[in-house]
Design a protein that fits this description.
Layout lengths: L1 H14 L2 H8 L3 H8 L2 H18 L1 H5 L6 H18 L3 H11 L1 H8 L1 H6 L2 H9 L5 H22 L5 H26 L2
Helix pairs in contact: 1-2, 1-4, 1-7, 2-3, 4-7, 6-11, 6-12, 7-8, 11-12
Keywords: DNA-binding
GO molecular function: DNA-binding transcription factor activity; transcription cis-regulatory region binding
Pfam family, one: TetR_N
Length: 187
C-alpha cells in the first residue's frame, strides 16, 4: 500500500503501471495482483485515503455547533496547514485525479449535502446573508491550498533552507487567514 501511495502520488493514475508499484514495493507483480486484483482497485483505496485525509479534517469542524465561525476558520487554517506541511504532494495529487474523474469524487464525499446542513453555513447566513457559503469555502480553501500547489514556482529549489522558509510563511499564514476572513465577515 505504501509503495502504491508513493507511485500514484508521483505519477498519477494514468501513468502508473502495476509493475511500477511492484518494483517500488520490492515484490513480484504476481503477488501484487494476488492481493489487490487490479490497478483500479488499488488506486480506489489510495484515492479514498487521500480524499479522506484532505477533506476529513474540514467536515467535523464545519458541522461542530459548539464552535463560533471564527473558531472554525482558525481550526481549518491550522489543521490544513499542518496537514499539508506533512503531505505537500497531497493537493496536486487529489486535484489532478479529481479533474480526471469528478463524478467519482463528488459521489464519495457528498460535499454539497454536508456543507448545506453545516452550522458554518447557518452562522454565515446569520452574519453575512449576502455571501454565498461556497464563496467563503472556496476562498478559504484557495488561501490554504494554493501556496502548496504553487510552491515549486514561488520557491524554486529543493533544499532545507527553502523548506524552512516556506514552513515559516505557512505558520504566519495560520494567523493571517483567520484575520482576512474576519475582515470579510465584519465589513
Amino acid at each position: 500500500m505504501e509503495a502504491a501511495r508513493v507511485v500514484f502520488t508521483r505519477k498519477g493514475f494514468a501513468a502508473t503501471r502495476t509493475r511500477d508499484i511492484a518494483e517500488e514495493a520490492g515484490i513480484n507483480l504476481a503477488l501484487l495482483n494476488y492481493y489487490f486484483r487490479s490497478k483500479e482497485k488499488l488506486f480506489a483505496q489510495i484515492m479514498q485515503e487521500k480524499v479522506q485525509l484532505m477533506f476529513g479534517l474540514v467536515f467535523p469542524i464545519v458541522t461542530d455547533e459548539s464552535l463560533s465561525i471564527e473558531q472554525k476558520i482558525e481550526k481549518i487554517a491550522n489543521g490544513y496547514i499542518d496537514l499539508l506541511l506533512q503531505n505537500p504532494d497531497l493537493p496536486i495529487f487529489v486535484l489532478s485525479e479529481v479533474r480526471n474523474n469528478p463524478e467519482r469524487f463528488a459521489q464519495s464525499l457528498n460535499i454539497a449535502e454536508v456543507m448545506a446542513s453545516s452550522s458554518l453555513v447557518k452562522q454565515l447566513q446569520e452574519r453575512r446573508p449576502d455571501i454565498h457559503p461556497y464563496q467563503l469555502m472556496t476562498s478559504i480553501m484557495g488561501m490554504l491550498v494554493f501556496p502548496f500547489v504553487s510552491k515549486p514556482i514561488l520557491f524554486p529549489g529543493n533544499d532545507e533552507q527553502t523548506d524552512v522558509m516556506f514552513a515559516m510563511l505557512m505558520e504566519e499564514r495560520k494567523k493571517l487567514i483567520p484575520q482576512w476572513i474576519d475582515a470579510v465577515l465584519n465589513c
